[in-house]
Design brief:
The structure holds two protein chains of two kinds.
Chain A: H1 2-17, E1 21-39, H2 40-45, E2 48-50, E3 58-64, E4 67-72, E5 76-81, E6 89-95, E7 102-105, E8 108-113, E9 116-121, E10 129-134, E11 140-143, E12 146-151, E13 156-171, H3 181-193, E14 217-218, E15 224-227, E16 230-234, E17 238-243, E18 251-257, E19 262-268, E20 271-276, E21 279-284, E22 292-298, E23 306-309, E24 312-317, E25 329-334, E26 342-348, E27 355-358, E28 361-365, E29 371-375, E30 386-390, E31 397-400, E32 404-409, E33 412-417, E34 425-431
Antiparallel strand pairs in A: 1-13, 2-6, 3-4, 3-14, 4-5, 5-6, 7-8, 8-9, 9-10, 11-12, 12-13, 15-16, 16-17, 17-18, 19-20, 20-21, 21-22, 23-24, 24-25, 25-26, 27-28, 28-29, 29-30, 31-32, 32-33, 33-34
Chain B: H1 2-11, E1 18-34, E2 47-63, E3 68-79, E4 82-97, E5 101-113, E6 124-126, E7 128-140, E8 146-162, E9 168-187
The chains are: A mainly beta, B mainly beta.
Organism (chain A): Persicitalea jodogahamensis
Pfam families (chain A): LVIVD
InterPro entries (chain A): LVIVD
Chain lengths: ~425, ~190
Amino acid sequence: METMLRTAGILLIALSVWSCNDNCTETRVRRNMTPVTISLLEVRKDLRTEAPRALEHPGKIYVRDKYLFINEVAEGLHIIDNSDPANPRSVAFVKIPGNGDMAVRGNILYADSYSDLVALDITDPKNPKEVSRVEEVFRSGQFDGGTWNYNPSIRAINAQKVTFVTETIQTNCEDNPTPNWGWGWNSVFAMADASFFRSANTSSAAPTSGGGGGDGQGGSMARFALYDKYLYTVGQNELNLFDVSTPTKPAFFSTVQLGWGIETIFPYKDKLFIGSTTGMHIYDNSNPAKPERLSIFQHGRACDPVVVHDDVAYVTIRTGTFCGGTQNQLDLVDIRDLNRPQLIKSYQMQNPHGLGIDFPTLYLCEGEHGLKVFDAKDPFNVDSHLLSHFQKMDAYDVIPLGKTLMMIGKDGLYQFDASDSKNLRQLSKIPVGSPAI
Amino acid sequence: MLTTTLPTWAQETAFKKHYLNQTEVGIMLGRVKADPYAQQGGSGQEIIQNRTNLTLQMLNGIQYSSRLGVGIITGIDWYNSALINPIGAGLRYDLAGKKTTRLYASADAGYGFTWFHDDAEGYDTKGGLMLNPGLGLRIGKPEGAAFTLAFSYKHQEATVEKPPLWDQSSRTEDRNYNRFLVRLGVAF
């Protein structure tokens, strides 16, 4: 008995001394930036058409008739023949260094290439040809969180090459759930000061355009939009207008200062809806040469694309890299009085990215949480009308095309048959990594 | 004195399985060592802090033999930034001692859930494995209610998905809580 007690006593002491330390580690994947300098001569020389290749890091999408354009972040464009959405075929890859956005009018495709705006003739989609170029109009931009700046003194681009590194740190097991204010704000201010970033991987293609025949269609994350005889491109701080009355000869027309943090542009009727990190800007575009600000709908700082149908604007707000903010929500905004937009209702979401409206169906990309389809007929009860939720896919942005729906995510491009919005059916997928046929 | 102790001796031969309940409240003591500036790249200087948290646990089961009791444990642990409710299997085994004061060993294992934990926006806390071996003293008549004083070691795992900071694309914390527990309770 005594031995037992003694053993127990020793055990007890051992227990109390033995490593009663909380042990917590945080693993994170961080962007590692390596500065690189690319001369403009190099950028311009490298534009060429190549054989079709696999999607690696898809960015924005853009649709024009039976052709589909998928941006390969900072590298170029995949051209896909989509005459049969169930069986899309890759036609060509156009290498465009520093490309993030595109828009198509007629047979002319406009694309950015770091500081330049390039016009390509895509009459033969297998072999697009450069027809003109507006040189050195964009000052800065961002890909994947890596920024680039135009350096006029040597006529080159100072960019950051992004690689991802995994690192582990020891934590105190209770990292305050106070989000990244200190960091986020500072860094965003720093970037604002340096007049940084334009197209991020946080953005995909361009919206429905009003005027001008033969325009293509992009998603809610677009920074390029065609309207009337102008091509609008939004930068970090400004809206650039290009006169495209002669489509093959785009000409730089003017710049409208917007304030920093601009992310997306969505033309609707004769208005421009511009998503920024601080809110939604509404511009009157009845004189397309001179958009005028009507109002700003402000909210917390976050990333937020916007789409519009009639009197309601749908704005998503999400947290995440470069966006800061602590909310993930969908806001419905009453825009009957454009001078005084008014919140209808906010809905909590998981991590909303791009969105699309084919009234009354609302498509919402939830990032790694997939795609959600809502019936938005009743603006006060959108969340209780979830028609379907596709999980196990990454959803970044959508383009509703009536009968079909196009969706891009980190894992590839999906197409759905949307003729019955209650019952979406996947038609095809071009997965990342494997070459499209 | 005699009248109370004698019948208990007599009962040893005639043991009957019966319901067992042990309800305990206690503290979980631990320490943590970390660089407060690790998030910003590290200052090279670690600081050590104490951690003291409240724990509640209840075991429901049967006294299987005069020495062995088994049951299901449910509990709730208020860690500083996680509220975890472990559920698992528990075992009590008398090692030694007189009938009114006995030393017992306990072994609890299960999974800690975060059903009642409310995450901050952007955070997602998930529980994990829970192991809790220990020793205790049970003071009271075997067939009646007793007080318990238990010392144990608790290992609790948890993971937290966090919103990435500005230059990151993902951020996950793996937590291993290793605590020394002192608990008082009643058993019947």
